[in-house]
Amino acid sequence: MLPARKIGHGNMMKISAKFLLFLLFFFIITNLYADSNKTKPHGDKSNLPKGCASCHKGHGEYNTPMLHESRKLFCFRCHGHSQNIEKTKKTGDLAMDIQEKDLQGEFDKAYHHPIEKDSVHHFGETLPEVDPSLPRHVTCADCHHHHYVSNDNKTAGIKGTNRQGMKTETVNVQYELCFNCHSYSANLLADQTNKAELFDAANPSFHPVVSSGKNSDVPSLIYPLTTSSLIKCTDCHNNDDPLGPKGPHGSKYEHILSKHFNISDGPEGISEYELCYSCHNRNSILGNESFPFHDLHIVISNISCRTCHNPHGSTQNAHLIDLDNISIWPSKSGQRGFIDLGPRAGECYLNCHGKDHDPAVYPSKPSTSSKTGTPSSSRHPSHR
Ligand code: HEC
Ligand code: HEC
Ligand code: HEC
Ligand code: HEC
Ligand code: HEC
Ligand code: HEC
Ligand code: HEC
């Protein structure tokens, strides 16, 4: 089966036990998988003429369940660069008339899910990760099941994590897939946040991914979006090429964003904040329909949306206001924060490039009577 120098006697025993198990599974799975394989493209012989053998062979790659390729490259035999697909077609493993999309190109882009990294992946592992010392990892198989994937449910057969951080048997809504690794993972990187916390329905504000939004007054929304719409992670994290394969695989834009978004301050332009302007009307924002000083800040002072708004949610403030930002310091009275004063009204305490707001109030001049609390945050600014 395998080069003898690689395996000792004990290993040989393990491998033959594995082989028997494999045969057993083979018969169970052949039956399971035969019923409704029309909707399961990997079980459809008009796609994969050799059936199981299009992917498995007697003498497979080392340390795989008899696959033709290592796990890292395996899916690219049929979903990779055109030369790989052509090669696979020549073996008869893939039907000649199939036009597969090049997913490999997505992972060659500057920003992508890092499937090339060595991972400590094993089936039945616990996600979100509980061991903070384990490296972060992600593979195709984390998001697509090799046997059960279907055209109308590309994450069929994958388990999820719900908003409370509990396991779910299937991915019922897309974010449950993402929460496997971007919520309560003990090994989250220092510059990454727990998305289940940011999208929590109990927060003062959040983009409507997990539940519909808190604000019923969002005049900039572009039809057919309304304040009761739900959106997905992949409305913002997706292929930058709308004609290429869909999904959060890779993008030429940082953070795998589907459209350009300038995180740092700089001159305003349609393309600078293209991502936001695809759902929020630019004329409405710059026309100051809600916040009367949008134009002043964005166009005249060249401030990015990100300096004031968090694209996910805020555990502290209304309107996605997030002042935990490298360019925002406490005001001269030592306060940093935002107080919501009802529809289209609020006040800010901060110092931004020498501009002191202590507070700055909108829509009108400072009023002492309407004040309802102290600023929500006066922490020292951190990295963003
Ligand atoms: C599209 C390619 C593909 C096809 C077609 C396919 N398999 Fe698999 N199979 C895989 C991959 C990939 C894995 C390994 C996942 C891993 O361990 O990383 C696997 C794993 C297995 C395993 C080990 C247990 C498991 O599910 O991980 C068995 C048994 C198996 N396949 C049997 C079959 C049988 C029987 C068929 C035909 C009815 C079949 N496979 C068709 C790709 C395929
Ligand atoms: C031997 C060829 C082959 C291999 C290997 C293979 N696939 Fe596929 N896959 C196909 C074909 C053919 C289709 C059907 C294409 C279609 O419906 O447009 C498909 C469909 C899919 C789909 C659904 C696409 C859609 O547009 O609905 C996903 C997702 C997918 N495969 C993921 C994977 C992953 C992940 C792997 C590796 C574990 C893999 N495939 C390995 C041939 C293969
Ligand atoms: C409205 C658009 C939008 C939606 C919806 C959205 N994101 Fe983001 N996301 C962004 C932007 C813009 C950035 C970059 C700016 C930043 O990091 O704050 C980002 C950054 C990230 C990052 C990297 C930095 C960090 O904050 O950890 C991750 C991971 C991420 N998003 C995951 C998700 C997941 C998972 C979902 C769904 C549960 C999601 N995003 C929904 C726009 C969005
Ligand atoms: C895919 C569509 C989509 C994209 C892209 C998008 N938004 Fe939104 N946004 C919405 C929807 C829908 C609402 C309404 C939610 C509600 O009613 O609270 C909303 C609401 C908001 C709110 C008001 C929230 C509140 O509670 O007052 C702000 C602020 C906001 N978005 C900023 C942004 C910024 C900044 C970007 C770019 C980084 C962006 N949005 C990108 C769909 C989107
Ligand atoms: C982080 C999760 C994730 C990873 C990793 C991932 N995918 Fe996907 N993929 C998705 C999601 C989500 C979609 C569905 C997008 C949609 O339909 O909006 C998708 C869609 C697809 C499609 C259908 C594309 C289309 O245009 O309809 C194929 C094929 C596919 N993935 C293959 C792969 C292969 C092959 C790999 C590994 C090389 C991979 N994916 C890695 C999440 C992932
Ligand atoms: C199996 C784990 C896993 C799953 C599932 C997963 N991701 Fe990721 N994702 C990662 C890893 C690992 C990285 C690399 C950065 C890191 O370690 O956080 C990453 C990076 C990202 C980034 C770029 C972060 C940055 O700093 O620029 C975004 C955006 C993202 N993922 C969104 C998503 C979305 C949306 C989904 C669901 C459709 C998803 N991910 C599902 C593991 C995963
Ligand atoms: C100086 C801080 C600041 C900047 C920069 C900023 N906003 Fe706002 N934005 C606010 C405040 C404050 C509100 C809340 C207005 C209210 O009380 O209703 C708001 C409200 C919103 C709303 C919800 C109401 C509506 O108009 O539909 C959206 C959407 C929005 N902003 C998008 C953006 C986008 C997109 C950008 C970048 C192009 C941006 N904002 C830049 C402070 C800012």
Overview of the molecule:
The chain is of the alpha+beta class and 384 residues long. Among the domains are: 199-322, no CATH class; 323-384, no CATH class. Helix content is 22%, strand content 9%. The chain has twelve helices and ten strands. The chain has helices at residues 9-34, 71-74, 76-79, 82-91, 104-108, 140-143, 174-182, 195-198, 274-277, 282-286, 294-300, 305-308, and strands spanning 111-112, 160-161, 167-168, 205-206, 250-251, 313-314, 328-329, 337-340, 346-352, 355-362. The strands form four sheets. Strands 7, 8, 9 and 10 form a four-stranded antiparallel sheet that branches. Strand 8 and strand 9 (346-352) form a beta hairpin. The model is unreliable at 1-13 and 366-384 (pLDDT under 50). The structure holds heme C (HEC) (7 copies). One heme C binds next to helix 1 and helix 2.
